[in-house]
Amino acid sequence: MTTIYITSFGWDQPAGAPAANLTFDLRTHFRDPHKRPEFRYLTARDQVVVDTVLSTPGIRPLVASIAGAVAAYASGPVAADITVAVGCVGGRHRAPSVAMLLAGMLTELGYEVAVDHRDIDLPVLTR
Q1: φ, ψ dihedrals at 84, nearest 5°
Q2: Chain centroid to CA 22
Q3: Is residue 125, in this structure, part of any structural domain at all?
Q4: How far is CA 120 from the centre of its chain?
Q5: Going by DSSP bridges, is the β-strand pair 3-10/112-117 parallel, antiparallel, or unpaired?
Q6: Is residue 42 part of a domain?
Q7: Low-confidence ranges of the chain (pLDDT < 70)
Q8: Are 24 and 101 in contact (CB under 8 A)?
Q9: Residues 63, 53: contact at Cβ < 8 Å?
Q10: Contact 48, 97 (CB under 8 A)
Q11: How many CB atoms lie within 10 A of CB 71?
């Protein structure tokens, strides 16, 4: 069975983007909770952050599209695991929130899913 590996990460973290079959960049088109002082030191482990990110116009359709792309990869003739990378600036807010929503959608579709929030516990980036 194909396993879907989802990694959330921060583009501006030292490690940069991980290797992946599909990589999604949330930096430009979706508002950053980091810019709100009351959210800066929170992460996607805080429900208010997740709610804020997932209420952003365009996020849910984007995640549904990513799930569709994963399904297309999985239906190919080679049975291989699929890696999806989702990045925002620091990897603490948008990327892990989207990664969790994507994981839930893919699990509901019957895929085995593993999620890694690579940068969620790194220090807050100063900008």
Answers
A1: -120, 130
A2: 11
A3: no
A4: 11
A5: parallel
A6: yes
A7: none
A8: no
A9: no
A10: no
A11: 15
Using DSSP's 3-state secondary structure scheme, residue 29 falls into coil
123 within a domain of the structure (yes/no): no
| Distances from the Cα of 82 to the Cα of 6, 32, 120, 124, angstroms | 8, 27, 22, 29
Return d(Cα 88, Cα 83) in angstroms, integer. 17
What is d(CA 10, CA 16) in angstroms, rounded to the nearest whole number? Answer: 7
Note whether 91 and 82 are within 8 A (CB): no
DSSP lists the bridge partners of residue 86 as 8, 24
Pairwise CA distance, residues 106 & 22, whole Å: 15
**Interaxial angle between packed helices 47-54 and 59-74, expressed in degrees from 0 to 180 and rounded to the nearest 10:** 90
Of 40, 21, 41, nearest in space to 32 by CA: 40
Q: How many CB atoms lie within 10 A of CB 105?
A: 19
Residue 34 to residue 52: CA distance in whole angstroms: 11
Report the length, in residues, of the chain.
Answer: 127
Number of domains in the chain: 1
Q: Give the model's pLDDT for residue 126.
A: 83
Q: Which residue type sits at 126?
A: T
Strand order in the sheet with 82-88: 22-25, 82-88, 3-10, 112-117
Host domain of residue 46: 3-117
